[in-house]
Structure formats: structure tokens, C-alpha cells
Amino acid sequence: MTVAQFLECQLNEVGSMLAAVLEDIPERIVDSKVSKCSMSIRSQVLHLCEAYAAVVVVADGGKFQWGVSQFPQTSWEGIKDELFRRRATAVERVLDGTDKAAHIGAEYLGSHDNYHIGQMVTARWTFQPEWDLYTIYRP
After folding, report:
1. pLDDT tens column, 32-47
2. pLDDT greater than 80 at residue 48
3. What sections of the chain are H helices per DSSP?
4. How many independent structural domains does the chain possess?
5. Which residues lie closer than 8 Å to 18 by C-beta, 6 or more apart?
6. Could you give the 3-state DSSP secondary structure of residue 118?
7. Separation of alpha carbons 70 and 72, rounded Å
8. Would you call 19 exposed, middle or buried from its count of C-beta atoms within 10 A (0-12, 13-18, 19+)?
9. Cβ neighbours for 106, distance < 8 A, ≥ 6 positions apart
10. What would the pLDDT profile of 58-85 be if each residue is shown by its tens digit?
11. From CA 97, how far away is CA 80, in angstroms rounded?
12. Which range marks the domain in which residue 100 is found?
């Protein structure tokens, strides 16, 4: 297995975990926070959308301006669709790019995503305790 194949495998696995934590999530909990200082699931999804836009810009050698992203979707389903559309674009960009792009992909689409997946799992399990948190792992 090459390094590029390993990165692709890792990014696909993380993407599957992200999809699993958001699959069939009740909209009634997406704005709830585990603590005053935590982000809601909706806020994290919007943050990840912005991070994926940053991946594309930074992978191309640009400087991303945080906090100015526009989100054409406002419905929860639309926001989730936008998340996965932007993530797919970012993954494609880092896998077809330079070593620098691959490094950015590992950082943003791997480590950073995993950080937020963990937070979303905690939030979902807190507000939907009957949810099986182990569903994020593929058999």
C-alpha cells in the first residue's frame, strides 16, 4: 500500500464515521450543547463546511479567510448535503494534489474531522441516549 492509498483509506474511514454520526439524527437535538462552551452539532457541521473550503484554498497555496463563508442551505438536510458535497471536493483535491495537499488533507480531513466526530458522538449520545454510539464503526 502506498502512502497515497493509505491516506485515501483513512479519509474514507473518517468520512464513513462522520456520515454514521449524522445518519438519522433527530433534528430536535442538533442545536443542543453538552456544555455552555461546547459547539452544537449544527455549529460543528457548519464549521466543518468552512474547514473543507479552507482545505481547497490552502492546498492550492492560498490563504483562507475564516469566518466569511456563505452557506446557501439553511435547512438541516441542506446543511448536511452541503457538508458532504464540500468534503468530497476537499478529499478529491488532496488526493489529486501535491505532498503539501496530502499533508493538509491528513490534518483537516483526518485529525480535525475526528476531533469533531468525537464531540458529535458525545452530544448525540447525551441527548439521544438510546443511540448506539458504536454504529460509527463499520463491521
Report:
1. 999 999 999 999 999 9
2. yes
3. 3-22, 41-59, 76-95, 99-105, 113-127
4. 1
5. 48, 83, 87, 113, 117
6. helix
7. 6
8. middle
9. 7, 10
10. 988 899 988 777 777 789 999 999 999 9
11. 26
12. 3-136
- The answer to whether 130 touches 28, Cβ cutoff 8 Å, is no
**What local confidence, expressed as pLDDT, does residue 66 receive?**
86
Write down the mean pLDDT value for the chain: 92
Total residues found in the chain within this entry: 139
Q: How far is CA 113 from CA 1, 2, 17, in A?
A: 23, 22, 9
Report the alpha-carbon distance of residue 22 to residue 83 in Å, rounded: 11
Place of cell 452544537: 40
Let me know: does 120 contact 21? Beta carbons within 8 Å: yes
DSSP class of 67: T
